[in-house]
Amino acid sequence: MTAKTDETTEPVKTAEAVDDVDALDAVDELDAVDELDEPDDSVEVAGEAPAVSSGVGAGAAAVVSAALGLAALSGTWVGRVATERETLIGQIKAQGGTAAQQISEIYADAWHTTALVNGVFALLALITAVVVLTRPQRPVWVRAVALAGAVLGAIGLFLSAGMYLDLFLSLPTAP
């Protein structure tokens, strides 16, 4: 006679098989969560319009770039103060110097300071305009004003570089 036992044999799971099953369960749970997080396009809320950018920020940046470009061409209060400071320092340094030293200290340093300040304003105008122009889908008026700012900034940068390098006007010479 053979004796029957009520024990059933279960297959032995290896650690690798357990890890695979756990990983598959985790992926299934993540998929279920992702499905809950996705917006339902079929349900529309009454009175809600799609979000559209008004372009106010881009328009303001375009106007700022045009104003900076204009300031670079016409000069600024900051440039005037820096120039006056350089003139005063030049007068102090040039006392008792030769005529060439006086011209260099009083006139040239102030001229170059004006060129540097105007060049910084022109560069800021150009950078701001380029940032506005590289943004997609801007209103036509924003792109036009930004383009004007870029042109003014480029002209201002060219003129400032010419001033600084004495390309347009040379320093006066002593008689």
Question: What's the SSE blueprint?
Answer:
Blueprint: H1 15-37, H2 56-74, H3 77-94, H4 99-134, H5 140-164
Structure explained in plain terms:
The N and C termini lie far apart (137 Å). The model is unreliable at 33-38 (pLDDT under 50). The chain has helices spanning 15-37, 56-74, 77-94, 99-134, 140-164. It is elongated, with a radius of gyration of 36 Å. The chain is mostly helical. The protein is built from 5 helices and no strands. The longest helix has 36 residues, at 99-134.
State the separation between the terminal residues, measured CA to CA: 137 Å
Strand content: under 5%
Q: What does the radius of gyration come to?
A: 36 Å
| Helical fraction | 55-70%
Oligomer: single chain
* General form: elongated
> How many separate helices?
5
Compose a concise summary of this entry.
The chain has 175 residues and is an all-alpha fold. The chain has helices spanning 15-37, 56-74, 77-94, 99-134, 140-164.
Entry keywords:
mainly alpha; 175 residues; 69% helix; 0% strand; 5 helices
